[in-house]
Design goal:
CATH architecture of the largest domain: 3-Layer(aba) Sandwich
CATH class of the largest domain: Alpha Beta
CATH superfamily of the largest domain: Isopropylmalate Dehydrogenase
Largest sheet: 10 strands, mixed
Number of strands: 12
Shape: globular
Structural class: alpha/beta
Strand content: 15-25%
Number of helices: 12
Distance between the termini: 18 Å
């Protein structure tokens, strides 16, 4: 098949890990006789430096004209002024809105080879294989906000519509049907009116899927259960802010953010794929960042946007084989264990494909 992929490397280690994800996609294209074309565009801090805009119009146009988008990460100390009128994170929120990306998928898969890389006990972790579905277009990140009383009072508004909740909950049930047939809806319905709406809609959708087990958790209880009994979860569906926080917590189950990919899906086949980690400016440019989350994000790109499941499995199997063979980047290595760099790890995965 032919596919056009937009590459938004962004800032910091985003450029390094995205290069390895692209390398792996090029290997897949060669091995499976596909034609993938790649085109680069600016987003985040580098876009501010070069254009004054964290999300240039040209970037949006390219992404809209592509079959999928591969993203690195945005931000860094250079632009880390919370009072600035223009910030790198605006590019990330902006591209999600411009592309209509409403469902963020964050799988947490524990590799047996890395189970001791986590700070959680082995017996707690064993059997963990969960997927968080995070709503992306609503909630407190997009509600009305501002200052009043001369700047002494600040407010942010969490707002959801029935339609926003329903479509993301339906995605969760569709995905659970291909997994272990369980959905957990996470909210704060004991306090928040928006969560009460969320809960009522989730229950209505659940009633349409009697073959799938359904339960509800308050977000604070979910945060405890993720550490106490993570293997009890299959698919978690939740709102924008709760999902943002819970997925960072869940990343520690795997031992490192450098292992977790994500997919942000729109209606139809368009999607944006990125590792969940940030720009890690403290290690940028040193060839030590873990590219596996970006590479596994490329596998999600193959599966969800290009509908190439066999090729996605080939990437995921290659990653597992590299780990089985004992190769580690610094973030997943045990004390004293030999490590490989970003480029070498990408090459090792490509070789096994």
């Amino acid at each position: 098949m032919q596919a056009k992929i937009a590459v938004l490397a962004g800032d910091g280690i985003g450029t390094e890990v995205t290069a390895q994800a692209r390398r792996v996609l090029e290997t897949i294209a060669a091995e499976f006789r596909h034609t993938f074309s790649f085109e680069d565009a600016l987003i985040g801090g580098i876009a501010i430096d070069e254009t004054g805009n964290p999300l240039p119009d040209e970037t949006v146009a390219l992404c809209q004209a592509s079959d999928a988008v591969l993203l690195g990460a945005v931000g860094g100390p250079k632009w880390d002024d919370p009072t600035a009128a223009v910030r790198p994170e605006q590019g990330l929120l902006g591209i999600r809105k411009a592309l209509g990306l409403y469902a963020n998928l964050r799988p947490v898969t524990l590799y047996p080879e890395l189970i001791d890389a986590s700070t959680i006990k082995r017996e707690v972790l064993e059997g963990t294989d969960l997927l968080v579905v995070r709503e992306l277009t609503g909630g407190i990140y997009f509600g009305e906000r501002g200052r009043r009383d001369g700047g002494k009072t600040a407010f942010d508004t969490m707002i959801y519509t029935e339609a926003e909740v329903e479509r993301v909950v339906r995605v969760a049930f569709e995905l659970a049907a291909g997994r272990r047939h369980k959905v957990t809806s996470v909210d704060k319905a004991n306090v928040l009116e928006s969560s009460r709406l969320w809960r009522s809609v989730a229950r209505r959708v659940a009633a349409e899927h009697p073959d799938i087990a359904f339960d509800e958790l308050l977000v604070d209880a979910c945060s405890m259960h993720l550490i106490r009994k993570p293997s009890s979860f299959d698919v978690i569906v939740t709102g924008n802010m709760f999902g943002d926080i819970l997925t960072d917590e869940a990343s520690m189950l795997s031992g490192s953010m450098g292992m977790l990919p994500s997919a942000s899906l729109a209606e139809g086949s368009l999607g944006l794929y990125e590792p969940i980690h940030g720009t890690a400016p403290d290690i940028a440019g040193q060839d030590v960042a873990n590219p596996l989350a970006a590479i596994l994000s490329a596998a999600l790109l193959l599966r969800h946007s290009l509908k190439l499941d066999q090729e996605a499995v080939a990437v995921e199997d290659a990653v597992q084989q590299v780990l089985r063979d004992g190769y580690r980047t610094a973030d997943i290595a045990r004390p004293g264990e030999a490590t490989v760099g970003t480029q070498e790890m990408g090459g090792l995965v490509a070789e096994r494909i």
